[in-house]
Amino acid sequence: MKPAVASAVQPVASSAVDSKGLGKPLAISVLNQIVSSGTNFALGLYLVRVLTTVQFGIYGIGFAIALFFVGLGNALFLTQMVVRMPDKLPEDRSHYAAQMLVCVLAGGFGFASLAAASILLGSLAWSAVAQHASLCFSITVGSLAYLLKDFFVRLAYCGRKESRALFVNVVLAASMTSLLLVLHLSAVPMTHERALWVFAASQSIAALLGLVVSALPLASVRLAAVSRAFQEAVAGGRWALGGVIVTWLQSQSYIYVTAAFLGPVGVGQINAARMLISPFSFLLPAIDQLALPRLAEARVRNQGRVSLEGARYAVAVLLLACVYVLPLLASLRWAIPLMVGAKYEHITLLVWVWCSVLLAQIVRSSASIALQASLEFRGLMLDNVLTAALTVILAAIFSRASGAFGAVLGLAAGEVALAILLWRRLLSEHSRAR
User: Fold this and answer.
1) Is the pTM here over 0.85, yes or no?
2) What digits encode the pLDDT tens for the residues 89-145?
3) H-state helical runs in 74-92
4) CA dist 235 to 76, 85, 273, Å?
């Protein structure tokens, strides 16, 4: 195997899931997530101050749509690649990754074509669609570019090349900063649409550089191998895909319920409050990206260890969250105007309920990644269906009574219910594996 190919995805060590030796990868992963999420957070801080509450709300809705598409792609392709990589022979892993990249490109092209056709047809039928066609295209391009960038980040983690993931996200940060600086120096006023185009362009640049450094053997890809990889991904991904759809309904329902009852202004207020917990949220994807491939390896060697590792993850992250949440709640009088501006001083209760959501999501996420590593995608989807319906109903009922606060309170209740169901399922799997 050529050195360039070998470097794309390396064999995993047998002691990968042990805590020993995780210091450097964890440090790089945390730094990587600080750069990645910090870039989006800095963009949010900038936009929350320069945009009106309505424009900030529309930007939040567009970003939520992009996250939905990326979630679908992650479930169908990226997560499947991560959890199935340990089952491949070491010499086949880089070829398998190249095949999955082709699957992602094909799926993304199909999505973009469908979106473009819908926008064009809608523009011919309704003038309102024509007026917002550029906004719709920016969301489509940003969604596809975000997914491709994530592919190369996840690939780097699979091959224990965390520094490559850091490189991709540094490129993203530099590109976004440069584009914003150009607009500022050109005295171009910022709008929600321009913000989404900046997001799309920077994600595209990062994805392109990720392709360059990945050194995947794309020339060796054959249609038959891609077809097999696609069928394998769909076999597990169809349940994960359904799970993502209902999870999205659960985790993002507050946006659409709020938009329906309160309009973009309510969405802007909720997203402004959420930004105060965002600095800690940087850590969660960093730890998840390290934990999932290692839990998948634990499943290959000993199914019973997965639930134990998941519990350790939950306790550790919950303790870290308390270190952040408690001082935050004690200092909201100055933290809110400092971070999001004086026009959002009335969002104190929203910050409190968002902190509750954060703690519930940590407990839920630890069980979720353990079940993904155990290939329990069907069970994940079924549990998510129940709690997604509960979340949407509660968010609608509570928002009618308490506005934006009620919508997020419904989300918190749904997250608690989902955490209970997932941990019940995980412990049940552990008992059967013993």
Assistant:
1) no
2) 878 888 888 988 999 998 888 888 888 888 788 777 676 666 778 888 899 999 999
3) 79-84
4) 9, 15, 39
- From CA 318, how far away is CA 37, in angstroms rounded? 19
Between the alpha carbon of residue 116 and those of residues 112, 113, 196, 201, the distances in Å are 6, 5, 17, 18
Going by C-alpha positions, the residue among 274, 254, 232 that lies closest to residue 77 is 232
Between vectors from CA 380 to CA 293 and to CA 107, what angle results, nearest 5°?
Answer: 70
pLDDT tens-digit readout, 130-142: 677 888 889 999 9
Place of tokens 């069980």: 367
Chain-centre distance of CA 167, in angstroms? Answer: 19
Rounded to whole angstroms, how far apart are CA atoms 250 and 244? 9
- Copy the structure tokens of residue 44: 């949010």
Contact call for residues 170 and 35 (beta carbons, < 8 A):
yes
Q: pLDDT by residue (tens digit) across 204-242?
A: 999 999 999 888 888 888 888 888 888 888 776 776 676
Distance between CA 227 and CA 53 in Å, rounded?
47
User: Taking the domains of the chain in order of start, what are their residue ranges?
Assistant: 21-433
